[in-house]
Amino acid sequence: MKPIQDLYPLLTTPRKVVITAHQKPDADAMGSSLALYHLLIKLGHQVTVVSPTNWAGWLNWMPAVETVVDYELNKEQVSSLLAEADWLFCLDFNIFHRTKNLAPLLAAAPCTKILIDHHQEPDSVNFDYGISLTSKSSTSEMIYDFIVASGNSDLIDEGMAECLYAGVMADTGSFRFPSASADVHAMVAELKRKGLQHTGVHEHIYDNFLENRMRFIGHVLSNRMDISYDYNTALISISKKDLQRYQIRTGDTEGLVNYPLSIQGIKLAALVIDRDEERKWSFRSKAGFDVNTFARKHFEGGGHFNASGGRSSDSLETTVQHFISVIKEYASQLQ
Ligand code: 5GP
Ligand code: MN
Predict the structure, then answer these.
(1) How is domain 211-334 classified at the architecture level of CATH?
(2) CATH hierarchy code of domain 2-206
(3) Of 262, 270, 254, whose CA–CA distance to 310 is shortest?
(4) Listed residue (37, 39, 35) closest to 47, CA to CA
(5) Cα 204 to middle of ligand 1, angstroms
(6) What's the gap in Å between 295 CA and the centre of ligand 2?
(7) pLDDT tens, position by position, 77-118
(8) Which candidate, 153, 178, 150, 151, places its Cα nearest to that of 164?
């Protein structure tokens, strides 16, 4: 993988570009993709953002989100876009399987592939150019760095600033995680100077619940959360019935895994959801507990030191029992 700087001189020649991110894109995946989209459009490229799957409705305020192509609904269009593309940007993931059913198409695409990401253990051999920095708060911060370092900061407008801010805000837990560095705050100051209205972004993302989602959270915290003080661990498990009863849609469970970390003493929060195709795990931790390694080792997943995810093909009951038994190995780290 050649360094990303080698791409800067090539940005002035118009190309056909596809930008994609991980499945079920979150605010960072969608925000970084759309900010890059706006930059490349301004530089004269022909650009399409492709999402491997659908996404949460509370991202639909982002400028140009209506142009994003959902692969699952437009397979032929995405195949031809990838066949004709000169460049493919892969954002906020670092291994093709994070794009689910789109993965084989990305792997086979004949174009130049570019990685911009902040997750651990990148699959660098599959990319021609790129940058992978686990120290970065978010891919949105990295896109901001890309814009500035390539000499294009004058092109940042209010809409791009909102997309970038949304990604950084979401991935830093509203600027509370250790990843919210001085560089992050300096970036936000610069975005404010470009016209960013940050209050509106918070409202779009956090004050945009439907009543059922709020009641679902109440139900889950009352009835589906188990706390083990022996291991300073909270476990939330959500069945298909729960999802159906509250008419839960993509994005409605986002952030739920963070709630138990507000309980005094809790160091590990785990959330498992019984999705149609798999049991999907989310892990969050405080202090020195490494959930990236934990998810990799026990739940076919990965992510970051304090935030990771994984999966299981077992039933909900079986995977929950597996979690309860493996957590015992970590007693000394969690106590
Ligand atoms: P979330 O719990 O919000 O879905 O994911 C937390 C973090 O872990 C995100 O950075 C996400 O990209 C990563 N992650 C989630 N699920 C998986 C997975 O199955 N595999 C890997 N490698 N990373 C994951
Ligand atoms: Mn991210």
Answers:
(1) Roll (3.10)
(2) 3.90.1640.10
(3) 270
(4) 37
(5) 23
(6) 17
(7) 999 999 999 999 999 999 999 999 999 999 999 999 999 999
(8) 153
